[in-house]
Amino acid sequence: MRDKNRINSTDDSKYISGPRSLFGWRMNMLRFYRNPFTYSRWLYDEYGKIVALGQGDSPTYVFAFGPEYNQQILTDPDLFEISSSLLKVPEDSLLGRMFYNNLILMTGEKHKKHRRLMQPAFHRQQIVSYCNDMVQLTDLLGDDWEKKAQIELNHEMKKLTQRIAVKTLFGLYNEEELDQMGEYIHKMTKSMLWITLIPVNIPGTPYHQAVHCAEQLDTKIRAMIARKRLETNATDVLASLVQARDEDGTQLSDEELVGHAFTLYVAGHETTANALTWSIFLLSQHPNILTNLLEELDGVLKGSDPTLEKLASLSLLDGVIKESLRLLPPAGIGVRITSRSCELGGFTIPKGTNVFFNQMITHRLPDLYEEPDRFKPERWSSIKRSPYEYLPFSAGQHMCIGWNFATQEMKVVLARLLQRFRFALIPGSKISPNMMMRPIHGMPMKVVLQDGNFSKTSVKGKINQYVNLSF
Ligand code: HEM
What does the domain layout of the chain look like in residue ranges? Predict the structure, then answer.
């Protein structure tokens, strides 16, 4: 049902259009959360670049599609704010200090200062030093796969990126310690929804379990910080953060360091695991592209370790990663809240409006991407897109600080695994991504030593709405 919702226009005769439901905007939001991609696509096709899901109750929900709005929203963080209002953890609690002390929730000068202090840990030169760890941990996982015939790829990618994150962030070597650290953080974050819904610290509740894990983590990270203050030659991210000093001599406090370390781990590993999962999936469904990629890898690397110089000359691998992040970005829809009344696309938007920007729709605009639903890594050798036209890592002040790290990690892991193994999706598998691009029914893959014997398999599930797999 079409309707003009009642958000004012600067020209008083105009209202933002959008769908109407007997149950108001809540029903529309439910539809959106159930099927974020198809619902967004329908909104865009039906109503255009700016759509409102209703006004009646405050706050309202506005969807803004396309590069111009991405730019307007992402370059004005004081107006389009990131909100932490969903997080119901008290700020002065241990959990609160871990959850709130992070870049994404910081604003203005504080954000700039912390980002400046953290930047050296993500400089290209610093990230190069993580290359060996990435290779070794990938090989270790591969050794384990040689004993298996079938794997759940997303689970395995999470295990790998978790180990790489703990190793490169904290400098831990011991495999048991690597997994234990990851386990604590996993337990803390897996029940975020319950922690938010029932923030009650009594034994048996998810909140209580999260507090217990937070205590263990806090103690561990603080002990590591104390060690790193004495070491001068450690090269991990935490060591770099410990040593970071602003022009005026300010350093990050222990509390801030714990918060940043925790967030870097959380922000970095699942996103990268999902991106790797989809890259392997897309390649397994495009045997010709995979054949060409393997030729490129064999030609440049000849079985040797993927050093950074060699990675830089792998143009098809670069295109595969860009294309996978274009079609299936692990953070494909973002939201901001207006801090005051403002103008967007000729309409007056009230203070407190939730404004959604949408990488997934931007990445499928036919003016920007020919045959937008096809996986065509080769397109990247002839196109260049602005930060607001291609934004898997977002753009503006809050653009992902780990984009370089993630890209290098994806290149190393893919180069190493594809040379060693052939992946084949179990025929007829149901493959459906959720909002965060996690395949909700998993990604069951047969894994055998690489023999170049590629063929695509039939796929069921929502993935067919995201990508045209018929080529
Ligand atoms: C494929 C992997 C990744 C994707 C797709 C991704 C995506 C994103 C996106 C879209 C944002 C901005 C969110 C917004 O504007 O609302 C972001 C921010 C951030 N990411 Fe990533 N990320 C990835 C990997 C990583 C890694 C490996 C790290 C760290 C090791 C990391 C750390 C962060 C941090 C700290 C922020 C907040 C930056 C700020 O507010 O200034 N991410 N990421």
Answer: 1-87+333-391
